[in-house]
TrEMBL record:
It comes from the Bacteria. Keywords: Hydrolase. One of its GO terms (molecular function) is hydrolase activity. Transmembrane segments: none annotated. PANTHER family: GLUCAN 1,4-ALPHA-GLUCOSIDASE, TREHALASE. This is Glycoside hydrolase family 15 protein. The keyword rRNA-binding does not apply. The keyword Hydrolase applies.
């Protein structure tokens, strides 16, 4: 057995010396965590066993120290292609060399089928004869902890971290593997039709390892393919852009926890909103806001099981918070408060973007909008999936009462600003939504309703129209007293607060276009105005672009909406995934992939499809 130093050795290989662009990755997952697989065949990010567990591979955040698991051909001038098997989360990476073609199949057996924590890689020579190299270089606990390696046999290596609560992982293969320093290494040649299998799994006493690796890989591969195809087949959508909608749904499903029913905003942390900047956050938590919007997307597509499991998770949280007004804006996937924000100073960050953060200090903030997002998702669930229980209603009623008493407060808002609290328009809008949906749920069940709910809802309505309307600019402002606009305002018609064709809204949309839209891309706000209290800038916010498209389609500007939607589809990466933001050269920025972006895509696509169908039917009748 050999120990490493806590930060590991310098991890330099001929194909892993530079950062892959964020958009160069596909993802695979088991419904409790995901791995990012680069075009070069390298897994550069994996938290194990859960989304919010420490990393064992993090070369995406430090190519020298982070750790990776790569399989690649040794031939020169290899072209790289990557795709998903249709309607699955099984990822194929193809290596196109002059003297052969190799195909790497990556997947993680889903938790519903296999309770173990496993990652499977099968490399095949499709044509010709190729020599491959495998490097498995884990770095435990965000590359902070040493590990011990044990060569069990010519086909098996065990890595054990030296933490107080150590994690043990096993690497098994159908070709001989060996230790190179303290990492797994193999070099092997495959003729046409030959394969080599690699299994990386967490060692758990209750789950013994498989003894027939090749047969297990083949069996689990077909079961995995069938699982995802069966899941996609449950979708009720049959309109335009079905392939990209299905891919976005598959991405959202990968970000749900089978164990808890919760959803992460993104499965990564520390990826920068600006290269070299400081806006590098941890998104591996369940935001009430993001998850609630995701439920809307699942319900629209007919995935009621996911909506039901999330509602069970929410109901548990409403009981856990104890009293009204204590709803946190985010939780761990297990339903606890996130860890304190920390900086991993030993990691250089993606393309030297520091600091790399884990935990998220924003969980201490007050964000009034989360009540509206939660109540809206419950309202949709109650209406389209199944009625909620009376006990759950009583818990929610306490939250509505609290909103009635506190909607006028300042908060940090949807964008979690760190420059001081304001009376944000979006927060006030979602307080209106919270009370409005509470009233609607109660009326649907004929529950007795407090008289002051409607009174407070109407007060908020009038406040937004008077306190946030700037007569000279002819637009609704970002916060009370501001002269700036905010892309979050785009949700006003989407949440049915105002008609999408109301003159006040159309003039607001025009001001947003002038100030925040660059071609078809939308900034959430202008960072140079200092509202968020942070230095540096950021890219355009992809979710806001999809909101913008939906506003255009609802306003009847269908040609413009379709053009901008199609343009935005062109910014997806090679397998249909989106990061949080886009730079001016189309580069992906921020955590990847982001649930908010993909659910925004689904919502805008569904609405645009409906509007186009309505316009076509109207034309036919004429």
């Amino acid at each position: 057995m050999q120990p490493t130093q806590p930060d590991g050795k310098q991890l330099e290989t001929s194909t892993n010396t530079a950062y892959q662009p964020i958009e160069n990755y596909g993802i695979i997952g088991d419904l409790n965590t995901v791995a990012l697989v680069g075009l070069n065949g390298s897994i550069d990010f994996l938290c194990l066993p859960n989304f919010d567990s420490p990393t064992i591979f993090a070369a995406l955040l430090d190519k020298h120290k982070g750790g990776y698991f790569q399989i690649h051909p040794l031939q020169e001038d290899v072209k790289l292609k990557q795709l998903y098997l249709p309607d699955t989360n099984v990822l194929l990476t193809r290596f196109l060399a002059r003297d052969g073609v190799g195909e790497l199949t990556d997947f993680m057996p889903v938790e519903e089928l296999y309770p173990c924590k496993e990652l499977i890689r099968r490399i095949t020579t499709v044509r010709g004869k190729l020599t491959f190299q495998m490097n498995c270089c884990p770095r435990f606990n965000y590359a902070r902890s040493a590990h011990i390696t044990e060569q069990v046999s010519a086909y098996e290596i065990i890595f054990t971290s030296t933490d107080p609560a150590p994690i043990r992982i096993r690497l098994k293969s159908t070709v001989p593997i060996q230790l190179q320093d303290t990492d797994g290494y193999a070099q092997f040649t495959l003729d046409t039709g030959q394969t080599a299998d690699f299994l990386l799994e967490q060692i758990l006493p209750e789950y013994p390892t498989t003894t027939h690796l090749e047969a297990f890989v083949t069996k689990s591969l077909y079961e995995n393919i069938n699982y995802w195809k069966d899941w996609v087949a449950q979708s009720t959508y049959q309109g335009r852009w079905m392939e990209i909608i299905n891919r976005s749904a598959l991405v959202l499903k990968l970000m749900t926890s089978h164990k808890y029913g919760s959803m992460v905003a993104a499965p990564t942390f520390g990826l920068p909103e600006e290269i070299g900047g400081v806006r590098n956050w941890d998104y591996r938590y369940t935001w009430i806001r993001d998850a609630s919007f995701t439920i809307y997307a699942f319900i629209r597509l007919g995935y009621t099981k996911e909506a039901r499991e999330f509602m069970c998770w929410v109901e548990k949280q409403c009981k856990d918070i104890g009293s009204a007004g204590h709803l946190n804006l985010m939780y761990t996937i297990a339903g606890q408060e996130p860890l304190e924000e920390q900086e991993l100073t030993h990691l250089e960050g993606y393309k030297n973007s520091q600091p790399v953060r884990i935990g998220n200090e924003a969980y201490t903030q007050i964000q009034l909008d989360i009540y509206g997002e939660l109540l809206d998702s419950v309202y949709l669930y109650d209406k389209y999936v199944e009625p909620i229980s009376y006990d759950f209603w009583r818990e929610l009623s306490q939250q509505v009462d609290w909103v009635c008493q506190n909607w006028h407060l300042e908060d940090e808002g949807i964008w979690e600003v760190r420059g001081g609290k304001k009376e944000f328009l979006y927060s006030r809008l979602l307080c209106w939504v919270a009370i409005d949906r509470g009233i609607k749920i109660g009326m649907n069940h004929s529950y007795p309703l407090p008289e002051h709910w409607q009174t407070e809802r109407d007060k908020i309505f009038h406040s937004i129209h008077t306190d946030y309307w700037n007569e000279s600019l002819q637009a609704f402002m970002q916060y009370k007293g501001a002269t700036t606009v905010d892309a979050a305002t785009l949700l006003m018609p989407l949440l049915r607060f105002i008609s999408p064709k109301d003159p006040k809204w159309l003039s607001t949309l025009q001001v947003i276009e002038q100030r925040l839209v660059s071609d078809s891309l939308v900034y959430r706000y202008r960072t140079e105005q200092g509202i968020d209290g942070l230095t540096g800038g950021e890219g355009t916010f992809s979710m806001c672009t999809f909101w913008y498209v939906e506003c255009l389609s609802r306003a009847g500007q269908l040609d413009k909406a379709r053009l901008f939607f199609e343009k935005m589809l062109g910014y997806a990466n090679h397998v249909g995934l989106y990061a949080e933001q886009l730079g001016m050269q189309g580069e992906h920025l921020g955590n990847f992939p982001q649930a908010f972006t993909h659910l925004g895509l689904i919502s805008s696509a569904l609405n645009l499809n409906d509007q186009l169908d309505n316009a076509r039917n109207t034309k036919i009748k004429e």
